Amino acid sequence: MQNKKIQKLEDKIQKLKQSIAELGSLRPGSVTQQIAGGPGRKPRKYWQISYTYKMRSRTDYLRDDLVEAVEKETLEYKKLKKIIDEIIDLSIQLSKEKIEIAKKSLDSNT
To answer: Kind of pairing, strands 56-62 and 30-36?
Structure first.
């Protein structure tokens, strides 16, 4: 019973690891459209990506023709983060199962 549970968890983890390899280009951050201009000025719209990398916040401006590609990269990055969280959750469960089996094994030997 316990071994089946462990195998099931290991299989899920392996599938998630394989899905990481299928991801495209990655980029952290959020793409937003900003509007510049003050009173009496014509509003000007522009795109930017804001992100934090190596403990530093950054903002880069984007040309209109690059917005779609960069948004795809940020979505891929969000998928990666979600997959990593799932792997960690499953790995914790797997570790707990292995510990439980080890405890039962020790108890049965004494």
So the answer is: unpaired
| Half-sphere exposure of residue 44: CA atoms within 13 angstroms, side-chain side | 6
The pLDDT tens digits of the residues spanning 69-87 come to 999 999 999 999 999 999 9
What does the DSSP 8-state code read for residue 65? G
Contact 72, 24 (CB under 8 A): yes
Query: Using alpha carbons only, what angle is made at residue 96 by residues 90 and 97, rounded to the nearest 5 degrees?
Result: 90
Strand partners, 49: 31, 60
**Phi, psi dihedral angles at 47 (to 5 degrees):** -105, 150
The sign of the torsion formed by the CA atoms of 84, 89, 93, 95 equals positive
Overall residue count recorded for the chain in this entry? 110
Residues of the chain above pLDDT 70, percent = 96
**CB atoms inside a 10 Å sphere around CB 9:** 19
pTM, full prediction: 0.83
CA distance 26 to 75: 8
